């Protein structure tokens, strides 16, 4: 079959560009030769029509509301798998055998402790520092402890660093929470599963035994699965770009955490819960819907809309189901915030503005209600998102390094500033 071409014609100049086809999803036009041949750049701020790489990890069909990890639907992974199984899948490309899973669980479990001197980093922060600020600092500092796994050209060292990141993020996240509330750090326990270990490190106190609630542990594990990876989103692209310069994995993950913090991205779960609390009661919803539609008002419905999903975010449906399970388990089925959220969703999904702009609830719309019910303060919500997304960032970072086509990311621009001009002495200005 002849290769598909796209022709760019400018007056007499004609340039044929190759079209590349993936296994599923849109084709791409290879614009690599564009500048060399036509001395022009493409222009796509926000990268709405730009593929930055080839990837085998995650596929999203935004129109259909489909999310696959290595080909497996998120609904099936959330229903039948556990988070470390999804971590293995994202890192290695296949679901683990029973023996592979046991070995992976053992290796992750036995890397959950952090260097004891890490605990001193926290004391430099104010107690009321936002935990995401603490995470940026402490995760970036990990590269000061693990020089034996920062040679990114060594596949073994990359995998050691990958496992260390996945294993230590819950410990660091729990330490950030404990420091924030003025309670002592709790060490991980190797006889607990990943989610149970994290809940215990967050909520146990020295004065009494902490008994993990299996319903909450399962919900936590599923929430981690839902946040694990999501194609080339802003924070993943940040990690890839940082990694393209050869920066060590810990520094790259710290860059991803910083990007995720933004309210348009991972910070939306905290912003969505604060918005629901501000709305307060269902009768005030129309006032906020009007604000969201007002072009002169910067207010947006947090937890709504998505760059890729122009249908219901499949993760939001699973998240909503998990929310009901957690609230029922905790005897909070009548949580007023849930009532506001469900009424807000009902109204928005029937409103012409949201229908026309294809704005649906995303992963962040219900997660905050669930995490709040589980006992986490809103400022910890994005920390949990970062904890779960670490495996996605790491898997994408590894894929980028192994990709022969990848080189340092260095976009160009359309310059609209002053043309060449001479310096004017201050006496003549
Ligand atoms: C995440 O990319 C990923 O995959 C991210 C993520 C992941 O897992 O990594 O899925 C996680 O970040 C989910 C998104 C969380 N953010 C929020 O919930 C914040 C609220 N949402 C918006 O800020 C917005 O929808 C974005 C940022 C999510 C998407 O922005 P886009 O793609 O740039 O879309 P846009 O801002 O151009 O909006 C298109 C139109 C605009 O109106 P017009 O200028 O065309 O008239 O829709 C409007 C927007 O004003 N719009 C909204 C809206 N979101 C978009 N109007 C009201 N409320 C909203 N939430």
Describe the fold and architecture:
It is a single chain. With 429 residues, the chain is mainly α. Helix content is 49%, strand content 6%. The protein contains 18 helices and six strands. A hairpin with a 7-residue loop joins β2 (13-20) and β3. The chain is globular, with a radius of gyration of 23 Å. The relative contact order is 0.13. S-citryldethia Coenzyme A (SDX) is lined by residues 46, 230, 233, 264-266, 268, 292, 300-308, 357, 359, 362-364. It catalyses: oxaloacetate + acetyl-CoA + H2O = citrate + CoA + H(+). Pathway: Carbohydrate metabolism; tricarboxylic acid cycle; isocitrate from oxaloacetate: step 1/2. Keywords: Acyltransferase, Plasmid, Transferase, Tricarboxylic acid cycle.
List the helices and strands and how they pair.
Elements lengths: L4 E6 L2 E8 L7 E2 L3 H6 L19 E4 L4 E4 L2 E2 H7 L2 H10 L5 H12 L8 H5 L8 H11 L13 H27 L12 H10 L10 H13 L7 H10 L5 H12 L7 H12 L5 H9 L20 H16 L6 H13 L3 H5 L6 H11 L7 H22 L27
Antiparallel strand pairs: 1-2, 2-3, 4-5, 5-6
Helix pairs in contact: 2-9, 3-18, 6-7, 6-11, 7-8, 7-18, 8-9, 9-14, 9-18, 10-11, 10-18, 11-18, 12-17, 14-17
The site of s-citryldethia Coenzyme A has 22 residues, from helix 17.
What structural class results from the helix and strand content? mainly alpha
Largest sheet: 3 strands, antiparallel
Q: Order of helices and strands, N to C?
A: EEEHEEEHHHHHHHHHHHHHHHHH
Rg computed from alpha carbons, rounded to a whole number of angstroms: 23 Å
Lateral strand order in the biggest sheet: 1-2-3
Mean pLDDT across all amino acids: 95
Assign an overall shape: globular
Low-confidence stretches: none
**β-strand amount:** 5-15%
Number of strands: 6
In this entry the ligands are: s-citryldethia Coenzyme A
Number of helices: 18
- Helix share, percent: 40-55%
The CA-CA distance between the termini, in Å, is 66 Å
